[in-house]
Amino acid sequence: MTCKTNEHLEELIASVRHYTQFGKVADYIPALGKVNGQDLSIAIYDVNSGCLYAGDYRKKFTLQSVSKVLSLALVLMDRGKDYVFERVGMEPTGDPFNSISKLESSIPSKPLNPMINAGALAVTDMIIGGSLEERWKRLLTFIKELGNDIEIECNMEVAQSEFETAYLNRALCFFMKQHGIIQGDIEELMDLYTRQCAIEMDCFDLARIGAVFALNGNDPESGKQLIPKEIARICKTFMVTCGMYDASGEFAMKVGIPAKSGVSGGILGVVPGKLGIGIFGPSLDERGNSVAGLKLLEKLANEYDFSIF
Amino acid sequence: MTCKTNEHLEELIASVRHYTQFGKVADYIPALGKVNGQDLSIAIYDVNSGCLYAGDYRKKFTLQSVSKVLSLALVLMDRGKDYVFERVGMEPTGDPFNSISKLESSIPSKPLNPMINAGALAVTDMIIGGSLEERWKRLLTFIKELGNDIEIECNMEVAQSEFETAYLNRALCFFMKQHGIIQGDIEELMDLYTRQCAIEMDCFDLARIGAVFALNGNDPESGKQLIPKEIARICKTFMVTCGMYDASGEFAMKVGIPAKSGVSGGILGVVPGKLGIGIFGPSLDERGNSVAGLKLLEKLANEYDFSIF
Amino acid sequence: MTCKTNEHLEELIASVRHYTQFGKVADYIPALGKVNGQDLSIAIYDVNSGCLYAGDYRKKFTLQSVSKVLSLALVLMDRGKDYVFERVGMEPTGDPFNSISKLESSIPSKPLNPMINAGALAVTDMIIGGSLEERWKRLLTFIKELGNDIEIECNMEVAQSEFETAYLNRALCFFMKQHGIIQGDIEELMDLYTRQCAIEMDCFDLARIGAVFALNGNDPESGKQLIPKEIARICKTFMVTCGMYDASGEFAMKVGIPAKSGVSGGILGVVPGKLGIGIFGPSLDERGNSVAGLKLLEKLANEYDFSIF
Amino acid sequence: MTCKTNEHLEELIASVRHYTQFGKVADYIPALGKVNGQDLSIAIYDVNSGCLYAGDYRKKFTLQSVSKVLSLALVLMDRGKDYVFERVGMEPTGDPFNSISKLESSIPSKPLNPMINAGALAVTDMIIGGSLEERWKRLLTFIKELGNDIEIECNMEVAQSEFETAYLNRALCFFMKQHGIIQGDIEELMDLYTRQCAIEMDCFDLARIGAVFALNGNDPESGKQLIPKEIARICKTFMVTCGMYDASGEFAMKVGIPAKSGVSGGILGVVPGKLGIGIFGPSLDERGNSVAGLKLLEKLANEYDFSIF
C-alpha cells in the first residue's frame, strides 16, 4: 500500500461519490432511513504504517449483516468447528440472503452458510450464556475487544424497530426449530439477533476489526491472539465466497478481497497481511451493497493490486 | 344408493379392515398416537332414506385437516369470496400440504389454496371476532350447527400439544405476515387454529355435515340454508381438486366424490344430492390418508356408482 | 338443457364477444397468429336433442393442448392404466404447464399429470406403432372416429412451425429420457407431438368428441363404445383437476364441468350424461385460456346449472 | 515451497492412498469406469524451482469438468468479458452442477456461473469458428499451448460415449436455446462439448497449465502472455468460489487455493505466484471430487501454508 495520504483518499472518495445517486438508502425500518444517502467515508488500518481516513469517518452506523462474520468468529471459538458446521453449511448459495426455499429442499434441512440470514440466525442461537443479557454481553464484549473501543454499543431504536417487524426472520427461525437446527426460544433469539445487527460503530472501528482478520486474528496493537488463526481464515473464506450478498462472485472478480457488507451501507474489508478497511456509504444498489463503497473498493484494489487471486 | 342395511356395511368394513396393517397411526404428537390402529368405522347419512352405520361409529376423533373445509365455509360466508380469494388462491398444488417454497416463489406470495396448511392458516386468520374466545365460539357454534350436535367440543389435550410443537405452521404464518396475507397476532392464530384442528366428533356427526354439503348447504332435517349454495359448491370443488393431500388426483379418479381427510384418520365424504359420509380409520398411508378408509370409499363408490365424473 | 334455439346461443355469444378485447391471440409461432382475435363460435352436441350452433362454427382451428386428453385416452386403451401411470402421475400441479423444475425435484422424476407438457409428451411417446407414420396414423384414425369426421387432418404448416421452435419441449423430453420416462427417439417424438397439437377441426367436431365423453365413451350415434367407461372417466377427471392450465381450480368453481383448453383458443367441454361442447375463441387470457370462451361457458353453466359439484 | 524432493511427495501419497477405498470411480459411461480406483499421482510445477512428481504421473486421464476453466479462458479472450457475462453469471450456486431448476426460476434465465454444466455449455457454445472442426481445433490448440504438449488429444471413445448418453446436458442446452442463451446447433455443441470434456493429458501437463495461471497467464518457460492477467484472475476466482462442485466452500476453508476438479479424478490446482498442481485420483467422493486427491491437497496446503486467505 502506497496510499500514504489522507488527501489521496479524499480524492478517491470525491471521484466516486456521485455513484451514491444510483442507489437507495434502506428504509424497511424508519430508523435506518434517516441517514444521508450521499454520505461516504472510509478508514484504512494499515498494520505496518498506521491509519488513513477520508470522509466523515467518525459517523456511526449499525453493522447489520457485517455482524454475521463477528458472531460466527465468536461461536466458532466457543463451540468448535464440528458443532457449528453440523448446524450450518459451508457452501455459497445462488439464492437470496433471506430465502427459505433451500431450507425446505435440502436434506438435512440446514442453512447453506452463515452469511445468509438463516445461517446467521442459527449461529447467533449458538452464542453461549445463561440468559439473554449474558449472551448479549458476551457478544458485545468480544466486538468491543476486536474494535478496541469500549464505546461500541447497540442502537436500541434500530434494534427495537427490527425486532418488531422481523417476520421473515421469525419464519426462518421456526422452520429451523422444526428441523432441530435452532434449539432456543425464538423471541429471545430475535432479541439477541436484532441487537447484534444494530451494533453501532464508525469506519475506524470497522477498519481495526478488519486489521485483526488481516493479521490472522492478532490484535494489531497488543499482538494478542483475539481469534485463532484457523477461525480467522474460515471467516475470511466466507467473506470471499458469500460476503457481498448475490454479488459475491462479481465482487471477488472485480476486487478480490475478503469483505462483508450490510444494508446500513457498511463494508468490512480485509487485505490479508496488510490492511483492514471500514467503509460507510448508505446508498445501496439493488443487491444491498453500498453502491459508492463498491466503486471505492474497486478503485483502491486496482490501484494497489489488492486482489488475493 | 341401495346399501340398505347396516349388515352390508359391516361386511364391507370387514372386507377392508386388514388394510389397516399397511398404514401407521400419526404420532407426531403423543395425544394422537393413543388410538387403536385397527379401528375402522363409518356412518352414511342418506338424505332420502336415513342413516346407516358400521363399526364403532360413536367413537370420537379430532377433525385435523377435515376442519379446513368448515372454516373455509364460515369465512366465505362472513367475508365474501372476493376478500377471501384475494388472500388465498383457488388452484391445486403439486407440493406437500405443509410446503413453504411456493409461498416464496409465487408472486404475489399467497397460498395456492385453502386446503394446504398455509391456506388454511390464512383462512382461520380471517375468522371474525373481537377476541380469541369470540372467534373460537363463532367457529365452534357453526360446526355444532352443521353437525346438529351441541356436544361437539375441542379436545384440549390435542390442541395444547399441537400448539406447543407447531413450529412449521408458525414459520408459514410469519412468512405470510411478512407478505401481508396474515394480519393478526400469530400466537392467537396458532391457538385458534390448533383448537380448530382438535375439534372432536364421531362418524355420525361427520356424515351429517357431509349431508349438508350434499344438499347444497341445506340442513337435512330442518331444511334451513346453513351454507349458501354457491359456497357449498366452492367447498365441494376444493374437496375434489385438493381434499386428499397429494393423492387428490388419484382419489378423484378412483372414487370421484368430494372428500376431505385428516391425519386423525377422519374422512368427510359427499355424494352430491344424495349422501354425507363420515369415516374414521386412524391407520394412515404415507400421504396421510386413512388407508382402510380409502379402500372402503373405493368399494362403495364402485358398487353404487358414486363418481361425479 | 333448455337452450333450445340457435338464436339464444347467438345472443349469448353476442353478450360476451366484447371480452375478446381483453385477451391476445397466441403468436409464438406465426401460423397461430393469423387468426381473427374477435372470433367466437360454439357448437353444443346434446345427446338427447341434437345440436345447436352459434358463430362461425365451421371455422377450423388446431387442437393444441386439447389434444392431450385424446392421446391420453388412446394410450390408456393401448397400454393400460398401470403402464401409463408408472410413467405419468395423477396429481394436479401448481406449476406452469411448461415447467421443468418439478421434474427435477420429484423422486421419482415423473411428470405430475398428463395435462402439463411434460406429461403429454410422455403420453405421446407411448403411442404404439412401428414407425412415426404408423403411430401418427393410429392417433389420427382414433380422433377421426371420435369426431366422426374423416376430414380431420393435421395443419402441417402449424406442425412444422412448432417442430422447428419447440426447444423447451425438447428440454423436457431429454430430461425425461435421462430419467427413463421417455424411451423413444426425441426428434420422432417431437414430430409426432407437434402433429398431434396441430390436428385441425371445427367446433362441431369438438362438440361431438365431447359428447362421446359425456356418454362415458359411447358414440352418440352408433352407440359403439369408442372409449371404455373407466378411461373416459379418468379423462374427465383430469379435465376437472387440470384441464384449464393454471386456472383449473377457478374454472371448476365458476363453471364446474370437465373441460380442456388449448392456446389456439379451442375448448372441449363435457356435461356428463348430457352434452358435448366445442368452443373456438382465439383471444386468450394470460393463462392461455380463451377469454370470451370462458365467459360463454360461465354464462351457460349458470343458466343451465351445468356444474357437477 | 520447500517440498524439495520427489521422495517426500511419494511419502505424502503413500500416507493418503488408503482414502481411495472410501470413494468410487465414476462409471456412468463404461469408458470412464475402466481405470484403477487406487491410482493416485501428482505433479507440481514450481515456477521458481522446477518440477516434482509422485505416483504414475504420466498416466493419462480425461479432463471432464477441469476443461470448464480452459474453455472459459479461451472464450473470455475471444469474446470479451461483456459478451460472455451477458450470457453466463458470476455467482456461486448452492444447486448441484447439473441442475436445471435455477435456469427456470432465474430472470433472466441465464446460468449462474461457468463452472456448472449449464454455464459451461453456454461457454463452449461461444467458441468461435466456422465449423465444428474449426472450433474444436481452436480449443485444442489453445490447450496444447497451455500444456506445452502437442500430444494432448481427445479420447474419442470417451467423447463418443458421453455424446450418446448426454440427455441431461441436451435438456440444459435446449432450455437455454429457448431463452436465447445458446445460439448454435445443439448437436454440434454436444459434439464439441463432449470432445472438450474428453481431452486427455497427464498430471504433468495439468501442473504446467496450473503454472500458467499461477503466473497470471504467463508461460512459465517462454514468459509469453498466453492468457491476459485479468482473465487468468477471473478464472482463478471461479475456481475458488465454485471449482469443487458442492464442496467448493469447504475446500476453500480447508485448502484455500484455486482448484478445479473433474469426475475423471483430475484436479487442477493453482498457488498464485508459486505453483501449478496436477493430480489424478479417480476414486471420487459423493460430490464428485477425488477423495484421496482432496486429502493430498489438504496435507500439502497445511504443511506449506498454501491458503490464499
UniProtKB/TrEMBL annotation, chains A, B, C, D:
Example of a GO MF term: glutaminase activity
Residues the entry annotates as binding substrate: 65, 117, 162, 169, 193, 245, 263
Keyword Acetylation: yes
Swiss-Prot/TrEMBL catalytic activity: L-glutamine + H2O = L-glutamate + NH4(+)
InterPro entries: Beta-lactam/transpept-like, Glutaminase
UniProt cross-references to Pfam families, sorted A to Z: Glutaminase
Alphabetized UniProt keyword annotations: Acetylation, Hydrolase
Entry EC number(s): 3.5.1.2
Database matches in SUPFAM superfamilies: beta-lactamase/transpeptidase-like
Keyword Phosphoprotein attributed: no
UniProt family annotation: Belongs to the glutaminase family.
Subunit structure: Homotetramer.
Protein name as annotated: Glutaminase
